[in-house]
Write a structure and sequence with these properties.
- The relative contact order is 0.09.
- It contains 2 helices and 2 strands.
- By secondary structure, it is α+β, with helices and mostly antiparallel strands.
- Strand 1 and strand 2 form a beta hairpin.
């Protein structure tokens, strides 16, 4: 199958395609995620806020402060 761009919604840890895909169940595919384009909707803002919260869960206060200051936390 050649490369194809699809729209999907991320909910509860799962990417759900907006339209059915021409794939067989169980087949593995590669994904390239791109930022959404267009105006921000209340739904998109809420989804980004939930994702941000998940990313910060489990960080110490010092790590959160370092992140807010723009530190590289990947080391």
């Amino acid at each position: 199958m050649a490369s194809q761009t699809i729209d999907a919604v991320y909910e509860n840890g799962v990417l759900r395609p907006v339209e059915p895909l021409p794939l067989v169940d169980g087949v593995r595919v590669g994904l390239i995620l791109t930022a959404p384009t267009g105006p921000l909707t209340d739904e998109n803002v809420a989804a980004m806020m939930r994702l941000g919260q998940k990313c910060s869960d489990g960080l110490t206060e010092a790590q959160l402060e370092a992140f807010d200051a723009g530190a590289d936390l990947t080391n």
